[in-house]
């Protein structure tokens, strides 16, 4: 999927691994810092295995000027992973990835946003998701840490 923004969204390919690893590891550190959970960081090579990233129904990458600048992964009901390279943030890449996932999987109805990740919460609100409640639990893939997330849903 390409549009006038120059952002290309396509299916993940194994050759994209080094790029999504770089993107995740830099963007995840920012996300965790916003939640005061820096110590919970796991690199993608570990997180992907623990959280079964490659088993998701859809994994998409976004290219900006032929550079992989973001990725998303979802099931048919949940948008679970969305990361944009910090060097390419605020260019609409996260929005385009989300919109693509929602178009391919129109029954996606929920997202969980780590407490403190206000930019992500605002993005999802602009896409029709509404805050339902705060949930507390263990961090998926790194259960040594407690987390709070905004549970957000949209009508499908």
List its salient traits:
29% helix; 4-stranded antiparallel sheet; 156 residues; alpha+beta; 3-stranded antiparallel sheet
Describe the structure.
- By secondary structure, the chain is α+β, with helices and mostly antiparallel strands.
- Helix content is 29%, strand content 34%.
- The strands form two sheets. A four-stranded antiparallel β-sheet has the order 1-2-3-4.
- The longest helix is centred in the first third of the chain and has 18 residues, at 17-34.
- The mean pLDDT is 95.
Shape designation: globular
Question: Could you give a short account of the major beta sheet?
Answer: 4 strands, antiparallel
- Secondary-structure content class: alpha+beta
Radius of gyration: 15 Å
Q: What is the tally of helical segments?
A: 4
Strand order of the largest sheet: 1-2-3-4
Q: Please mark out the parts with pLDDT under 50 across 5 or more consecutive residues, or reply none.
A: none
The chain-level mean pLDDT equals: 95
The amount of helix comes to: 25-40%
Order of helices and strands: EHHEEEHEHEE
For the secondary structure, the number of strands is: 7
What is the beta-strand fraction?
25-35%
Give the N-terminus to C-terminus distance in angstroms.
22 Å
